[in-house]
Amino acid sequence: MGLTYGILGAAMAALFAGIGSAIGIGYAARVANGVLAEDPDKFGSLFILVVLPGTQGFYGFLGAFLIILQLGLLGGTPKIPTTWQGLQILFAALPVAFAGLLSAIHQGKVCASGVEMAAKRPKDSTKAVIYGAMVETYAVLGLLVTIFLLQGIKL
Q: Which end of the chain has the smaller Cβ count within 10 Å, N or C?
């Protein structure tokens, strides 16, 4: 049962953070496509605002990868955690899963607004990136908490 919980934790980390990134990128990309329909030359200045919410998906993947490594699932004999250890791994995955999900969605909204601002004031697009990066901080903190928690689980 412990291995099942551990695998569930890895899946949740990748799945929820990935869903958040897809939604967040979708918000920003819809607005950017409207701007690009009017002025295709703005692609370069809008690109970073569109891709910024995608980083949470990478954080979720990293959290899942660390769990998969800890469980020994990439070759050889897997480590079979106790039920309690499996639950610990599952709970350790939750910070990156949920911080990734929610911060990516909200970062996408912030970046969509930044795209609108950059369309009207291209020289100020860096300011919009800074606001988007402020939301990113909480995804990074979720990843760090997951890493710290996983370090405390001995199989």
A: N
Q: CB within 8 A of 130, min separation 6: which ones?
A: none
User: What is 72-125 written as a DSSP string?
Assistant: TTTSSPPP---HHHHHHHHHHHHHHHHHHHHHHHHHHHHHHHHHHHHHH-GGGH
Over residues 110-145, the pLDDT tens digits come to 999 999 999 999 888 889 999 999 999 999 999 999
Domains belonging to the chain, first-starting first, are 2-151 (1.20.120.610)
pTM of the predicted model as reported, rounded to 2 decimal places: 0.91
* CB hemisphere CA count around 55 (13 angstroms): 17
